[in-house]
Write a structure and sequence with these properties.
The complex is a heterodimer. Chain A is mainly α. Chain A has a single domain, classed as MetI-like (MetI-like fold), CATH 1.10.3720.10. By secondary structure, chain B is of the alpha+beta class. Chain B folds into 2 domains: 228 residues, Rossmann fold (3-Layer(aba) Sandwich), CATH 3.40.50.300; 114 residues, RNA polymerase II/Efflux pump adaptor protein, barrel-sandwich hybrid domain (OB fold (Dihydrolipoamide Acetyltransferase, E2P), Beta Barrel). Chain B has a 6-stranded mixed beta sheet with strand order 6-7-8-3-9-10, with helices on both faces. In chain B, strands 13-12-11-14-20 form a 5-stranded antiparallel beta sheet. A 5-stranded antiparallel beta sheet of chain B has the order 15-19-16-17-18. The chains are: A mainly alpha, B alpha+beta. The interface between A and B is medium-sized, with 16 and 23 residues.
Chain lengths: 270, 347
């Protein structure tokens, strides 16, 4: 009996310690940046370069997130509700960018848009992606769409298809049933998807670097500003960019947690 | 009028086999059967959720087999209600009318009428999640009825309710059908429910429709062992018809009983426990069957007592508690089991 009590205590102790170690590690890393960044933050934000980076980051991330929604909504709904032929394969392909290093995604995009007739044709019509702001948006879109599709798919999966069916027996077309019933019920999931995708988009670096490059005051988003200033040893500016990114991440994570609801259960067994 | 002709449907391991069914205008038709018999699939085929693999569905003389659910004018009520959680009760009920862009005035009149009929006037501003099961079911029914559907499909509407709400709602279903005369198909696994509500009953088993008829017909003359067992018949035996006059002798093992049938050879025999009379002394009566037997078990079942008798065959008999006490019946006693030839169901 006594040995059971001791073994339970040891087990619990180990778990507590590991949780604590990881927490301290993460916290100190983040706190350190903010600590160093906050000092010069006001001054750095006043600088033209950081202001440009903030503006460009907001512009590109909001644009890419909205375009992403336009695609992800029908794709997630279609894959969840319709028997689209080859939907398993489509699902796998759509998920690949999640597992791919962003640099590889960037190279893939660069090759597609820089060295194929398709890319050349688009460039001819004024849609240039290589070394341009369009490229940043494209890179962000490529990286975040799989996330959005995943979140929306699980949102739609949680909505009973019989609700739409009942709506149809009451006279709705498929579109009306989607628009009047499923979409309003999915609202929270959609907002959660938007927030998590947007926060990924604003932090996107590797993929955008390959296709859009890192040119000061041209394709300089916050992560690029961090990278450029770090490489020339301007720590204050680098920390300021990092702090902006951390604050954005914390806020969006917070919103996401609230919207998704806390499903975790704490054991009530002693 | 609903006609289902030669409908087959394969869904995973389950298959619906050659369903032929016709339901008259204004009829209240109840499909009974155990879970997994395919009752819900039939409703979903009538409503257009699934297309049958073969065969077709006719509603009021129109072949609707390839029509969308929204073209069929059907009211569908699920066991778990399926109220729209993003709308309040009023918006749920008026959903179909708003789609039809019905003027506000006549919409309010209809809403008034339907909520009065279902006694849910006080719930209009509430949200579905705050309602009890019985209330949600009433709202779901109101939502289906307000559009004046040609057919009302009810998928186990009483199964999820507590006994009291169930009783009330059952009475309401009956009186609403009396008023609206909407052709209704109601699914249940509870035969009592079917008996109370149905004009006609269809019994389903493993994807097949095994018997149809009025509740009385099905109850009195089950055509198969499955139906007999499903209806709670307990005394079911295999026997053989031995002679050929009007009243026949059926031999079950060492026991012979008389019953009425046109069948010959090997048959199944069923006798309802409540159709058997118990007597301490043998007496002569018009009942053709009198079996000497011994009480081997007494099982209490609420106000009734079930006696298990050994009469050469094992016989279950239902008597009241009062009868048990007055007759002073005990295990091991010898009694006479008496029943009429017409109480012997042969199939």
């Amino acid at each position: 009996m006594n040995s059971k009590v001791i073994s339970n205590s040891i087990f619990r102790c180990i778990i507590y310690v590991i949780v604590f170690i990881l927490f301290i590690f993460m916290l100190s890393a983040l706190a350190n940046i903010i600590w160093k960044g906050v000092g010069g933050l006001v001054q750095s934000i006043a600088s033209q370069e950081i202001q440009f980076a903030i503006r460009l980051s907001l512009l590109t991330s909001v644009t890419s997130t909205l375009i992403c929604l336009v695609f992800a909504l029908p794709v997630a709904y279609g894959l969840e509700r319709f028997k689209i032929p080859g939907r398993k394969l489509i699902n796998v392909i759509l998920n690949i960018p999640l597992a791919l290093p962003p640099l590889v995604s960037g190279v893939a995009l660069l090759l597609l848009f820089a060295s194929t007739p398709f890319g050349a044709k688009l460039a001819e019509h004024g849609l240039r992606f290589v070394f341009s702001v369009n490229g940043i948006i494209l890179a962000q879109f490529f990286i975040i769409t799989p996330y959005m599709v995943r979140v929306l798919k699980s949102t739609f999966a949680d909505i009973d298809p019989r609700l739409e069916f009942v709506a149809r027996t009451l006279g709705c077309s498929q579109w009306q049933a989607f628009y009047k019933i499923t979409l309003p019920i999915a609202k929270n999931g959609i907002i959660a998807g938007l927030v998590i995708s947007w926060s990924r988009a604003i932090g996107e670096f590797g993929c955008a670097l390959m296709i859009a490059g890192a040119t000061r005051m041209v394709t300089e988003t916050l992560p690029v500003a961090l990278y450029l200033n770090m490489s020339i040893g301007n720590l204050e500016m680098a920390m300021a960019s990092a702090t902006c990114l951390i604050i954005i991440s914390i806020i969006s994570l917070f919103i996401f947690e609230i919207l998704e609801g806390n499903h975790s259960r704490i054991s009530r067994i002693n | 009028m609903i006609n289902i002709r030669n409908v087959y449907k394969q869904l995973g391991d389950f298959s619906l086999k050659n369903i032929n069914l016709s339901i008259d205008d204004n009829e209240y038709y109840v499909l009974v059967g155990p879970t997994g018999a395919g009752k819900t699939v039939i409703l979903e085929i009538i409503s257009g959720m699934y297309k049958p693999d073969s065969g077709n569905v006719w509603i009021n003389g129109r072949n609707v087999t390839s029509e969308y659910p929204e073209e069929r004018h059907i009211g569908f009520v699920y066991q778990d209600y399926m109220l729209f959680p993003n709308l309040d009760v009023r918006e749920n009920i008026t959903f179909a009318l708003k789609l039809q862009k019905i003027p506000q005035k006549s919409m309010n009149e209809k809403l008034e009428e339907i909520t009065a009929m279902l006694n849910i006037k006080d719930l209009l501003e509430r949200h579905p999640a705050t309602l009890s099961g019985g209330e949600q079911q009433r709202v779901a029914l109101a939502r289906a009825l307000i559009a004046e559907p040609k057919v009302l499909l009810l998928d186990e509407p009483l199964s999820a309710l507590d006994p009291q709400s169930k009783e009330l709602f059952q009475q309401d279903l009956k009186s609403i059908h009396h008023k609206t005369k909407t052709t209704t198909i109601h699914i249940t696994h509870d035969f009592n429910e079917a008996y109370i509500l149905a004009d006609r009953i269809g019994v389903m088993c493993s994807g097949e429709l095994v018997q149809t008829g009025t509740p009385f017909e099905v109850f009195q003359r089950p055509t198969s062992q499955f139906v007999a067992e499903f209806l709670g018949m307990e005394n079911i035996y295999s026997g053989e018809v031995v002679n050929g006059s009007k009243v026949q002798l059926i031999r079950i093992g060492s026991v012979s009983i008389s019953g009425i049938t046109n069948l010959k050879g090997k048959v199944r025999v069923a006798i309802r426990p409540e159709d058997i009379i118990i007597s301490r002394e043998k007496f002569s009566s018009s009942a053709r069957n009198t079996l000497n037997s011994r009480i081997i078990k007494i099982v209490s079942q609420g106000p009734f007592v079930k006696l298990i008798l050994d009469a050469g065959i094992t016989l279950a008999v239902l008597v009241t508690k009062q009868a048990l006490e007055e007759m002073d019946l005990k295990v091991g006693q010898s009694v006479w089991a008496i029943f009429k030839s017409t109480a012997v169901h042969i199939f």
